[in-house]
Design goal:
single chain, mainly alpha, 2 helices, 0% strand
Length: 75
């Protein structure tokens, strides 16, 4: 006995598969967006810390922070 699915069953499966793919893509886009926001915030904070190090004439902090900023900018 063959197990043949009706057109309606096949269409329902296809629709669910497409819906799951779209949901996965939406979640991925949201994740990328949030990661971008977080990275931008970290870069901005690092730049402010660099400005404070410059104002304080703290050479060690300046070089350390600029190296950290370089790492953030290469991600």
């Amino acid at each position: 006995m063959e197990n043949k699915k009706s057109y309606q069953e096949l269409l329902k499966e296809y629709t669910m598969t497409q819906w799951k793919k779209e949901q996965c893509m939406t979640e991925l886009q949201i994740d990328l967006f949030l990661n971008k926001i977080m990275l931008d915030w970290q870069i901005e904070c690092k730049r402010k810390q660099i400005d404070l190090a410059l104002d304080a004439k703290d050479e060690i902090a300046f070089y350390s922070l600029t190296n950290e900023l370089k790492l953030l900018l290469t991600t």
